[in-house]
């Protein structure tokens, strides 16, 4: 996403502040002020900003979109925070091995063209004992969950978002089985998949090889 569509997405997801804060609180329970955190595909950076506000962690955001890197850096500056947002590909992380205590990736994994490489890269840059959390849409999401998600966004935006969910996003999203198969092929080998009506969380841990 670049240009106009990145700006539109940033405006829409600015409405999800409560959700970003809830997610940050749950992740924050795993972090301290000295934790090194990587957010892969942070988009406009709202979750990254909440995480840094809450925990004081040192966070790096890496996104493939030049527009989003600019939008996220500007959002962090407005929030009075220093967060390093860089451009790069999830499948080829520009970091040495064993750097991060925690990795989070929200609403982006289904878009990755090389998901297996992305999982292996996450494991490579995690410290031993570190955790990665992938949050995304499940393929068999319920219609009611999407209706809940779009409520209060205005008729036109709600229609556009529902259409995007039911076409593009549904096509790319993972089933529980598809995700489990991918994880089993990755260097993580196993993970904990938790489902809710709209999406899944995949918790992965870097254990000794
Ligand atoms: C739907 S947005 C999600 C943004 C943010 N994580 C959120 O929760 O709102 C998907 C993001 O994935 C990024 N992205 C897609 N493919 C990528 C890749 N291969 N490497 C890094 N970022 C990628 C896009 O640029 C975009 O910022």
Structure description:
The chain is 44% helix and 22% strand. With 209 residues, the protein is of the alpha/beta class. α2 (17-28) packs across α3. The longest helix is centred in the last third of the chain and has 18 residues, at 155-172. The mean pLDDT is 95. Residues 1, 13, 40-43, 47, 63-65, 68, 89-91, 106-108, 111-112 line the site of S-adenosylmethionine (SAM).
Q: Can you tag this structure with a few keywords?
A:
8 helices, 7-stranded mixed beta sheet, globular, binds S-adenosylmethionine, single chain, 209 residues, Rossmann fold, alpha/beta
Short description:
By secondary structure, the protein is an alpha/beta fold. It is built from eight helices and seven strands; from the N terminus they run H-H-E-H-E-H-E-E-H-E-H-H-H-E-E.
How many whole angstroms does the radius of gyration measure?
16 Å
What's the pLDDT, averaged over the residues? 95
- The poorly predicted ranges are none
* Unique bound compounds: S-adenosylmethionine
Question: What is the subunit organization of this protein?
Answer: single chain
Question: What's the name of the CATH homologous superfamily?
Answer: Vaccinia Virus protein VP39
Number of helices: 8
Secondary-structure content class: alpha/beta
Strands ordered across the widest β-sheet: 3-2-1-4-5-7-6
**Main β-sheet description:** 7 strands, mixed
What is the third-level CATH name, the topology? Rossmann fold
Query: What is the domain tally?
Result: 1
CATH level-1 class: Alpha Beta
* Helix content, binned percent: 40-55%
Strand proportion: 15-25%
Any idea what the CATH architecture is? Answer: 3-Layer(aba) Sandwich
The span between the termini is: 37 Å
Please give the number of β-strands: 7
Global shape: globular
SSE topology string:
HHEHEHEEHEHHHEE
């Amino acid at each position: 996403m670049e240009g106009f569509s990145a700006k539109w997405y940033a405006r829409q997801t600015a409405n999800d502040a409560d959700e970003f804060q809830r997610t940050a609180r749950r992740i924050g329970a795993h972090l301290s002020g000295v934790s090194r955190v990587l957010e892969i595909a942070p988009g406009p950076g709202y979750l990254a900003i909440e995480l840094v506000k809450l925990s004081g962690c040192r966070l790096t955001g890496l996104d493939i979109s030049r527009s989003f890197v600019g939008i996220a850096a500007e959002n962090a500056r407005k929030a009075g925070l220093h967060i390093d947002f860089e451009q790069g590909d999830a499948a080829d992380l520009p970091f040495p091995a064993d750097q991060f205590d925690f990795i989070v990736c929200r609403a982006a994994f289904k878009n990755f063209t090389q998901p297996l490489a992305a999982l292996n890269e996450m494991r490579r840059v995690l410290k031993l004992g570190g955790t990665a959390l992938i949050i995304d849409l499940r393929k068999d999401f319920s219609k009611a969950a999407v209706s809940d998600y779009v409520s209060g966004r205005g008729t036109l935006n709600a229609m556009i978002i529902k259409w995007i969910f039911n076409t593009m996003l549904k096509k790319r999203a993972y089933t529980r089985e598809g995700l489990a198969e991918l994880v089993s092929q990755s260097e993580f080998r196993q993970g904990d998949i938790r489902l809710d009506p709209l999406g899944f969380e995949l918790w992965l841990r870097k254990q000794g090889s």
